[in-house]
What does this fold into?
Amino acid sequence: MTEISVLKKITLRKVTGILRGSLLKLFARSCGFPVTIEHEVRFLDSRSIDIGKRVMIRWHTQIHENVKIGNNVFIGKYCDIGKNVVIEDAVTLADHVTILGNTHHYNDPENRAGEIYSPGTKIIGKGAWIGQSAIVLPQVRYIGRGSVIGAGAIVTKDVQDHTIVGGNPAKVIRVLSASPEKG
It folds into this structure.
């Protein structure tokens, strides 16, 4: 394949993704521009979704109802974003990230996978970065601003601002400076 044909293919994919984003404006509660949505992205209820400006959603991602996505957000491939999630500005979700919004009442010994409910709104703070294949469980309400979730982490508790966590269950690895370091 020549360089020109590769560039044409890349340009066509980008234009197609932006067109998908423009179509979403017809159905979403609100949608900024440009929004790039690659193929096989599923919105379970697009009417309850707000999307900011300069958002990229990669292929095979699923977004549930009542989700708000801020500006300058990148969502990788094969992500699953549960219901009642707020993703603030400049957040990066790597590939295969799962943010669970629902859980089950399990007090009934006859039906441990009882009635489904949402424990409330989950906030992913401004500038947070969630690494590949990380899972954020339903009881987590807050991933702090400027925090980093390591690849493969299972987040079971809220994460404070400017904190790196990793592991299963995720534990604090380091607390970061709130302002950029000058070198």
